[in-house]
């Protein structure tokens, strides 16, 4: 099984990666210190299993799950310092977890569970919260942009960008994720819009455009125009 370890603590992720290799059941694709790096690694390596720390600064493990496309979502084993009683709900829902520090004998139980077959993906999907912040690249930094600031999102050959009054930023998230979990509305194959920021719908001959409060123009496809008009009450 191809595994990816995500934990903000260097010692914790290196120790777990070592235990996974010693278990003999995993090919460790790598370790990641944060959610953005993990998104890149998941997309590139398509791991079978994600060993995911729950409590990480900036972006938690649950928020990371919300940022992954359904068809790219690996099987998830949570790794946490919480006591066992606090995680009873995970066990009852058949979502596996490991307590820090990870004991080799407990890891063997996880291997057995993974070998028995995939868990119902809905058990992981239901844990994912709606997104309130979108991680974006700003030079060498990661900027967390509040969804309330976003006016639109667009995709191109260069990737996906979210557009706010102060400019646009690249994000590793897909349009599908932004539509399904950040509340943006599809208006075109390559565009989403936050409907609350729309100030005008311009109807042309065979075409339509939205204008946001900052003056951005967003195309509306003919197929999606009726739904957009309904959302705007127009």
Briefly characterize the structure.
The chain contains eight helices and 15 strands. It has 234 residues and is of the alpha/beta class. The protein folds into two domains: 2-125, Rossmann fold, CATH 3.40.50.2300; 133-232, LytTr DNA-binding domain (OB fold (Dihydrolipoamide Acetyltransferase, E2P)), CATH 2.40.50.1020.
Description:
With 234 residues, this protein is α/β, with parallel strands linked by helices. It folds into 2 domains: 2-125, Rossmann fold (3-Layer(aba) Sandwich), CATH 3.40.50; 133-232, Beta Barrel (OB fold (Dihydrolipoamide Acetyltransferase, E2P)), CATH 2.40.50.1020. Helices cover 29% and strands 32% of the residues. It has helices at residues 10-23, 35-45, 61-66, 88-92, 104-115, 121-125, 175-181, 225-232; strands at residues 2-6, 27-32, 49-53, 75-80, 97-99, 133-138, 141-146, 152-156, 159-164, 167-171, 185-188, 191-193, 198-203, 208-212, 217-220. Strands 7-6-10-9-8-12-11 form a 7-stranded antiparallel sheet.
